């Protein structure tokens, strides 16, 4: 199997979560390389979750929306939960105006909330769950 082409987008591992983000511009070639690299990392490392931070995206088009949707579906099939975090209001508005629902894509307002949704907590222990 050929090694994936580096997408130029860092993919970090924090515990059992892979963390990455999308840059301002995502052309077809970069998107394919990023998708291939992230998919390969999910398949080989078996993380419980993947956080994709899109807070740097100022605009979104149907291509990027489709890429996120397909990547989420692929990750889910490989056993990883994906949370897309940091969506700016103009991006959300554009998605609605374009009629792009991002079916099956879980979102969080911030990267920190996304990490919490994936079960990763800053500090030594997760917060207690009101069962005393």
From TrEMBL:
Residues 7-118 form the STAS domain. InterPro entries: Bact_StressResp_Reg, STAS_dom, STAS_dom_sf. SUPFAM superfamilies: SpoIIaa-like. It comes from the Bacteria. Pfam families: STAS (PF01740). This is STAS domain-containing protein. It comes from Streptomyces alkaliphilus.
């Amino acid at each position: 199997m050929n090694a994936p082409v580096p997408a130029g987008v860092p993919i970090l591992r924090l515990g059992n979560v892979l963390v990455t983000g999308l840059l301002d511009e995502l052309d077809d070639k970069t998107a394919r390389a990023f998708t291939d690299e992230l998919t390969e990392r999910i398949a080989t490392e078996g993380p419980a979750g993947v956080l994709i931070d899109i807070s740097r995206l100022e605009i979104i088009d149907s291509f990027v929306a489709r890429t996120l949707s397909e990547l989420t579906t692929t990750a889910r099939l490989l056993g990883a939960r994906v949370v897309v975090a940091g969506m700016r209001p103009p991006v959300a508005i554009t998605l609605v105006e374009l009629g792009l629902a991002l079916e099956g894509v879980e979102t969080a307002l911030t990267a920190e909330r996304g990490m919490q949704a994936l079960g990763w907590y800053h500090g030594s222990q997760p917060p207690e769950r009101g069962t005393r």
